[in-house]
Amino acid sequence: MSDITKQSLTDLVENIKNKKLSSSEVTKAFIERSEKSKVLNAFITEDFTSALDKAKKFDQKPNLDLKLPGIPMAVKDLFCTKNVKTTAGSKILNNFVPTYESTITENIWSEGAILLGKLNCDEFAMGSSNETSFFGNVQNPIDKNLVPGGSSGGSASAVAGQLTPITIGTDTGGSIRQPASFTGTVGLKPTYGSCSRYGIVAFASSLDQAGPMAQNVKDCALLQEVISSFDSKDSTSIDFKRSHYSKELTNDIKGKKIGIPKEYRVDGMPKEIETLWQKGIEYVRDCGAEIINISLPHTSYALPTYYIVAPAEASSNLARYDGVKYGYRASGDNLIDMYEKTRSEGFGAEVQRRIMIGTYVLSSGYYDAYYLKAQKVRRLIKNDFDEAYKKVDAILTPSTPSSAFKIGEKTNDPVSMYLNDIFTVPVNLAGLPGISIPAGHDAKGYPLGLQIIGKAFDEQNILNIAFAMEEKINFKNKISDWWIK
Amino acid sequence: MSKKSREFLINRRDNQYEVVIGLEVHAQVLSESKLFSSSATKFGAEPNTQVSLVDAAFPGMLPVINEFCVKQAIKTGIGLNAKINKRSVFDRKNYFYADLPQGYQISQFKDPIVGEGKVILDLPDGQKEVGIERLHLEQDAGKSVHDLDPQNTFVDLNRSGVALMEIVSKPDLRSPDEVSIYIKKLRSIMRYLGTCDGNMQEGSLRADVNVSVREKGSKEFGTRCEIKNVNSIKFMQMAIEYEANRQVDLIEEGKTIDQETRLFDTKKNETRSMRSKEDAHDYRYFPDPDLLPLEVSDEFVNKLKNEIPELPDDKKKRFINEFKLSAYEATILVSDIEIAKYFEEVVAKMGKNKDMKLAVNWITGELFAVLNSKNLEITQSPVSAKNLAILVNLIKNGTISGKIAKTVFELMLKNDEDPQKIVEEKGLKQQSDPKALEELIDKIINNNREKAIEYKQGKEKLFGFFVGQAMKASGGKANPQLINEILKKKL
């Protein structure tokens, strides 16, 4: 089979289960394509030799009852993987090899999947274009010199470029959904507490949530089923009844009430986005769902709130990277000097910027005005959603205010970069699940995504709506393999 | 300087100053594992052998609250007659130090698990109530070792993450002696509860001491200085005495006292400035997003209330009522749970016809003297409660005299031998047969006729001579009471 890498996860699982394909064949195919795709710079660490060994081992004694039998998979380099270097896209962890495995990757391997390597991302997941990575920017398979989005840019690029059949990213303010939107792929940010944070390099603890990134909704549902579990090692993990997302996936969304929030019609929103959103509304209506106009009055405060809460938590979470115990250490004349040099040399500019913002907003004298106020606004944003969900089952919005932009286009304008997250950030602040699905192209032929936001723990519902819409939209990603000579 | 029990006053010229003290006691929670990880907490283990990935703050590691430590804190709160807060919050206290792997300490800042309470101090001239401001749970840091290498500092993370209770008193203490009594009382309560072993040598109990002075009679508080991390009662007392005098001197010289953090130098016996208020850390406290607010139900608290043993204050009342002890005796016996246990065991073993006074005297007298001289805890007592009870009963029922009992007690120290057996084997039984004693006394009077006449003529002092002779003749075993009676009759 020559086009193994074009197959969806669901097909690959099917073919391995039917013994039409072996794990080795599949693994080899993705490795070969990855070898030809170095230009994308999607990988920070390749683990190909070990992956082939594991595939061979799997084929010798295949357990076909598993959900991901012998499926090769690369993961974002924010997940700690035992004995495989984990950098979080940062120089400060460039030499860090964990002795432990994150709960989510553990879940994945125990369902039969095989690690291909670690995928590029913005440094400590801080960025919307994958340009803050110490390991260089990532190319979007859609077009040359186009950002894949961020922070899960390597993950999005690898899925869209067919270097991995599926992957996982993390989403603190849109880091799964925005790159999914930029690359024509599907990305789900689950409810806060659905997927364990144990073993994931922390950015902002109250917002971070890992989730699947896939070529289609069904694949996405299958991976969500594997990664979502209650974990006593994460105090914010929630013990709720998780459904069999892939088995219970249905395109029957008749009678579902879909909310359209008027506040998401932001000033200066490109016409193309407006049109896409309108088309999306028609699709769900065609599926038999009911459209209801709603209001989420505090939406405009979400971005400033996010850019207080997230840096505040990050400034504290990143304090542990001090050169004392592991990771990069610069030499210094004394302890303070060593700290200053290690952190100045080890962290990139964007990470330093956010540590500074976070330190500032938590300082005594400013705490009440910034952090405390932001927490109050966060509560109001959550209340908005609670109110809305009294009337609707889900909410439909654009995923991003624009399509992918050129590499370097926004690096000198952090605020314009931050504006990328305007539609995704409220979902993290409210701890809700959100999924981005590809819904069309702009004039340049770049993909555009729509976001479906659900009630807490209602992943099944938004997956179903996404599944039904996917069928109607019939999106085809335009990948020309421009990077393969 | 005047040093009455409750007062510690400093006199300078015509001015008299009193000292105001508040304590922040750090008590290590008695628990086999740490506050947010399952690492062991044994004292004296090899460096860095009790460290988990969580304690060393590896990337992606998360804290999980140890329920046992929460129970210990609540129990301590109950022991301090304090309000248990059903909702408390863990905050991050951010600062950089080599032995603080996370770059922050998880502590409770705005919403501690235990609110206001009180502790009763037993002072020689009565009782005094000391207010408790709060008790909160927090992580200990690791240890920086500076003296192993001339170039480098080593870090031992065994203590990193160990659960501490910070118990903050109100500024209700007025003298070094009160501080000593307060610390001992806290320690006693926590040992009764089994929530802290109170071992100051091992660092399980240490305190930050806040000291200010003011003119006697003034209602305003003076500017306070905080003396950090003092780890013995003696040092606390020395530090307070030094610091109070230093502050008074400053006032007398017309200078102002700076609010600052100071260190106590135990070698030079002085406090030194560590950092001023301006240089104080900005800890950037905020709720730890890795931990949800801690919520406990009434049911949870009530269940713990039922597990609380009789505490020193109640035990003291009961000892006074039930055993008719004096307040002084009761205070001594309840001061340490093990002493109280020992005493109660003695009481139980003495049976029905018991002499409580005698038992108390033997425990606080002979036994304590032996323990002190051999530097032993009561749990290591060479004489078991059972055998001490037997000994007291032997005195009470006249089998041996108090004097003989001392000899027997000496012999018991070796192998905790049964005193009954010693008395029998060594033939130390008291001579209480009146007939035999009468014969003995007749003999003595016959042999000392002249002295007997002198006595009858009014030389009453000679009575002691006859008693002595009788005791001597009996080898010290004669019942002194009977000797007295018979002599009075015969002379």
Write a brief structural summary.
The complex is a heterodimer of chains A (485) and B (491). With 485 residues, chain A is of the alpha/beta class.
Task: Tell me what the structure shows.
Helices cover 36% and strands 13% of the residues of chain A. Chain A is an alpha/beta fold and 485 residues long. Chain A has a domain of 253 residues: Amidase signature (AS) domain (Amidase signature (AS) enzymes), CATH 3.90.1300. In chain A, the strands form two sheets. Chain A has an eight-stranded mixed sheet with strand order 4-6-5-10-11-9-7-8, sandwiched between helices. The radius of gyration of chain A is 21 Å and the shape is globular. Chain B has 491 residues and is α+β, with helices and mostly antiparallel strands. Chain B has three domains: 297 residues, no CATH class; 116 residues, no CATH class; 57 residues, Orthogonal Bundle (Arc Repressor Mutant, subunit A), CATH 1.10.10.410. In chain B, 39% of the residues lie in helices and 20% in strands. In chain B, strands 1, 2, 6, 7, 10, 11, 12, 13 and 14 form a nine-stranded mixed sheet that branches. In chain B, strands 5-4-15 form a three-stranded antiparallel sheet, with no helix packed on it. A two-stranded antiparallel ribbon of chain B has the order 3-16. In chain B, β13 and β14 form a beta hairpin. The longest helix of chain B has 20 residues. The two termini of chain B are 59 Å apart.
Key terms:
heterodimer; A: 485 residues; alpha/beta; eight-stranded mixed sheet; 15 helices; globular; B: 491 residues; Arc Repressor Mutant, subunit A; 3 domains; three-stranded antiparallel sheet; 16 strands; 39% helix; elongated
Main sheet properties of chain A: 8 strands, mixed
How many separate domains make up the residues of chain B? Answer: 3
Count of β-strands of chain A: 11
Protein structure class of chain B: alpha+beta
Q: Biggest interface: chains and residue counts?
A: A-B, 44 and 30 residues
Using the alpha-carbon principal axes, give the shape of chain B: elongated
What is the H/E order of chain A?
HHEHEHEHEHEEHEHEHHHHEHHEEH
Instruction: Let me know the CATH homologous superfamily of the domain at 4-256 in chain A.
Output: Amidase signature (AS) domain
How many whole angstroms does the radius of gyration of chain A measure? Answer: 21 Å
Task: Work out the strand percent of chain B.
Answer: 15-25%
Main β-sheet, spatial strand arrangement of chain A: 4-6-5-10-11-9-7-8
- CATH structural fold name of the domain at 4-256 in chain A: Amidase signature (AS) enzymes
Known CATH architecture of the domain at 4-256 in chain A? Alpha-Beta Complex
Quaternary structure type: heterodimer
Shape of chain A: globular
Which structural class fits the helix and strand makeup of chain A? alpha/beta
Can you count the helices of chain A? Answer: 15
- Tell me the Rg of chain B in angstroms: 30 Å
CATH C-level label of the domain at 4-256 in chain A = Alpha Beta
Q: What is the average of the pLDDT values of chain A?
A: 97
Question: Helix proportion of residues of chain A, in percent?
Answer: 25-40%
